[in-house]
Every structure is written in C-alpha cells, then in structure tokens.
Amino acid sequence: MQNDYATITEGFAVDYPMAQPSSVKLVLFNKELFEKLELNWTEKETVSYLSGSSCVGGISASALAYSGHQFGHFNPTLGDGRAHYLGTTQGKDIFDLQLKGSGATPFSRGGDGLCALGPAVREFVMSQAIQSLGVKTTECLSVITTGNDVYRQGYVPGAVVCRVASSHIRVGSFQYLALQQEKSGMERLLELAIKRHYPQIQSQGDDRVCDFLKHVCNTQISLIIDWLRVGFIHGVMNTDNCLVSGETIDFGPCAMLEAFDFNAVFSSIDKQGRYAFGQQPNIAHWNCARLAESLMLIMEDDEEQALAKLTDVLNDFSKYFNEAYHIMWAQKLGLPDWRDSDNELLSELLVLMKNHQLDYTNTFAALTSLAINKEGLFTLPAGLNEWLVKWKKRISEFDAAEVATLMSKANPAIVPRNELVEKVIEEFYEKGHSPLLNKWLPLLKNPYDYQEYDLVFTARHSKPETYQTFCGT
Ligand code: AMP
Ligand code: MG
C-alpha cells in the first residue's frame, strides 16, 4: 500500500493516531471484496489493520482535509473528523482504504470521532445492496466492534468500518484547495483524479480541466440515474459527500423509496426537502457547479473566458441528463425505443402510483414479472388496470424477449427495505449478530433474480409515516 495524498499540499493529509480499541471482534466481513484488493495480509494483520489497532506497513494513518456545502451553506473546514485513510492498494485495480469511527482527528471539532455499531452495520448492508443493484458505490470491507461504548442517545457499542473507495477525492477536496488558493496543489489533485478515474483524458491546459469537469458531470448523471432507477434517496448530498469518481459515498441518512413520490424525504434534518428523491438530479448539477467554480483557480485563460468554457460544460448537464433519463424509463417500462407519446404513458403511470401510494419497487417488479412470464410472483396493484391495457399494447410492438431482458435488468425485485435494515441493526445490538441478515444477504446480492420470495423481503414498511433517518455516526 502507499499514501497517494501526502504530497497534494501541506495539511491536505494530516497524520494522526487512531483510537485504540479495547477488545476487537470482527462482526461483518466482505470476503469477495477483500480478494479484489489483492492484499496478502494474515488474518491477524487483517483484524489489526481494520480495527485501527496498527497502521499498515509503515504508512501513518491520516485524516484528509476538505471543505463542503452542507445543505447549501459553505463550511470551509470539514475534513475527516472520524475517519483515517490507511493507504491505497497497488493491485490490478486501485482502492483507498479508510477507517470510519477510528477516533478524533484535528477535524473533529468537538465530535468524538467514533461510530456506533448501528450506523456501521447500515453502511455495510446498504453499500453491499447498492453495489449489487449495479450502482457505482464505495464498498464496505468490514465492521469490527471496538469494545468501547460510544454515547449517542445512551451508551451503545462502538465499531470501526473499513470503507473501500476508488478514491476519496470529493468536490469538497477541490473547494478546500480553491479556498487556500493552492494552485499547484489543485493541479496535483486534478492529475491524481485523472490518473485514477479518467485516464482517457489526453488534452492539455484549460481543455484538460474542462474535460475533467465533463467526465465528472457524466459520472454524476449516471449515478443519479441509477439512484432514481432503484429508488435510492441519498439524503445528504453535500459537496463533501460527492466524489469525483461518481461513486455513492456516506450512507448515514439514506433510505429506499417505497410509496412513489418525487418529494419523498426521510432524513430528519432535511426539513426543506433539498435532497428529496426527485431533487437529486438538480443537486448533482449544483454540486458540479461548485466543482467548476473551484476549478477556476487552475484555468489559464482570463477570468471571463475561463468562466465561459466551464459554463458551457455545465450547460450540457441537463441535455445529457434528460437523454439518460428517458432511456432509464424506457428500460423500466420495457421499451427498446422512446417516442413522444411514451411521455404520456409514463406520466400517467407515475400519477397513478403517486395517488395510490404504490410501492415503487413492487410495482415495477410486478410489471417485470408479467414481461418475463412469471406472473404472480408480484401482485399487480389495483388501480393500474386501464393503464395496463395501454402499456401491453405498446410493448406488443416489440420482441417479447427484448422487453423481458430490458425490464429484468432495470427493475430489481429485491432492495434494502428500510424496515429490514432497522431490524438487522436491532439484532446486532441485541445479539451481536443478525440471523435476518444471514437470510437476506444472498437475496440482496442477487436483486434481479425474480424467484419466489418470502414476503418478509418484499413487504413495504409496516408504519411508513413513522420512518425517519439520521446522520448517525
Ligand atoms: P457526514 O455527515 O458524515 O458527511 O459528516 C460531516 C462532517 O462531520 C465530516 O467532517 C465528519 O468528519 C464530521 N463528523 C461526523 N460525525 C462525527 C463524529 N462523531 N466525530 C467527529 N466528526 C464527525
Ligand atoms: Mg461525509
């Protein structure tokens, strides 16, 4: 492993010791992911490194600096307040390893730097589920309890999570360097980001910067399209939680959409609905604009010209987003191509779903089960009958096998249902392990299988109006 952030600028990666656990227990481990990392650690070393008990091969653990817009308000000094970067792997694919809950750092500002077992389990389950749904995401290698209690509403067991990411370069990382007027630091960060994520960029000078922004915009578009496709609500799309790689990061207040509603919000602190389900495209665009502003620092042209070039890139966001958006709905509806009248077919369905509070996943899963001749696997909701006639007529224009393939790839049968995630967390608190997760995980790993499911795994929340999420740490 190596440290890729040490040379960005002084203060960008701050070496800082990790909190020492008193007794470690590995409670969750992603073996397939560990194999992908190509690390030849012994079992003992693995637990020692992933609990923060020792640093990896001579690399000091460090906390990374970043700024960020939180709910639209700029915070210049965020940074890893409860996380330590361990290093970057050097196998075929390159990954950062970072511990979360590994103790206070110079960025903690009064926070304890720790993580409770519940949010650690949530991160493991959600990231595994989101990854299996085919959405770009950071992954979770392990959850280790530390033997130290942490104080939240009361005392609860503390845990350390190991996050694996293709990088930890955030929009907020660029904002931090822009704020410091760190021109050469930003150039180094740009080169690291290009090397890691967009090696196809060959241009130089201002074009290179603009091409980078273009690629980030495109990966953000793909990411948000996938979130919308599977019904994921991130909940806290602050610029510090926006990676230039286009991976999902931070699963604190996230939730899955159940009753269809573009205005759905679950996070207790998102009072204005800034990060509501249907707001996510606008926010991704807004975050990309904050990246563009930061990149102004390293543009060579005069200010007006530079601004015009970056603005041109940003202006394409909506066009590309809308193209991808139509393709997404076409796939969800089983339409190999999209014509104008399909807009009406779609909006009629969405209005019906909203008015009848239909479950997003189960409605599309029921349509898919019709298309793949597994009728009955999911019950078609009442209220759709008239619409169904129109939809069946439209898909009959295409090859049935093609329709079936499109739909079964776009519409998951299994998603990480909010109530089940909470039950798994409860079991971990009560028993230290989760029999429910043991049964559920194989299904979460194969969400497009369309087999007979125990109702437990497809039922929506029993008291949806009560469900809230928290930026829990
Ligand atoms: P997040 O909401 O997870 O994106 O975190 C926002 C900021 O708050 C980051 O700078 C975190 O490092 C910091 N933070 C969150 N929880 C804690 C904690 N328990 N102790 C110290 N800092 C924290
Ligand atoms: Mg964060």
From TrEMBL:
E.C. numbers: 2.7.7.-, 2.7.7.108
Q: What class of enzyme is it?
A: transferase
Give the active-site positions.
240
Q: Per the record, what are the reactions this protein catalyses?
A: L-histidyl-[protein] + UTP = N(tele)-(5'-uridylyl)-L-histidyl-[protein] + diphosphate; L-tyrosyl-[protein] + UTP = O-(5'-uridylyl)-L-tyrosyl-[protein] + diphosphate; L-seryl-[protein] + UTP = O-(5'-uridylyl)-L-seryl-[protein] + diphosphate; L-seryl-[protein] + ATP = 3-O-(5'-adenylyl)-L-seryl-[protein] + diphosphate
Q: Name one GO molecular function term.
A: AMPylase activity
Which residues are recorded as binding ATP? 79, 81-82, 100, 112-113, 163, 170, 250
**Keywords for the protein's UniProt record, in alphabetical order:** ATP-binding, Magnesium, Manganese, Metal-binding, Nucleotide-binding, Nucleotidyltransferase, Transferase
Q: Please list the cofactors this protein needs.
A: Mg(2+); Mn(2+)
Q: What does this protein do?
A: Nucleotidyltransferase involved in the post-translational modification of proteins. It can catalyze the addition of adenosine monophosphate (AMP) or uridine monophosphate (UMP) to a protein, resulting in modifications known as AMPylation and UMPylation.
Q: Which PANTHER family match?
A: PROTEIN ADENYLYLTRANSFERASE SELO, MITOCHONDRIAL
Question: What family is it from?
Answer: Belongs to the SELO family.
Matching entries from HAMAP family are given as: SelO (MF_00692)
Protein name (Swiss-Prot/TrEMBL): Protein nucleotidyltransferase YdiU
Q: Which organism is it from?
A: Pseudoalteromonas phenolica
Q: Taxonomy-wise, where does this protein's organism fall, top ranks first?
A: Bacteria, Pseudomonadati, Pseudomonadota, Gammaproteobacteria, Alteromonadales
Gene behind this chain?
ydiU
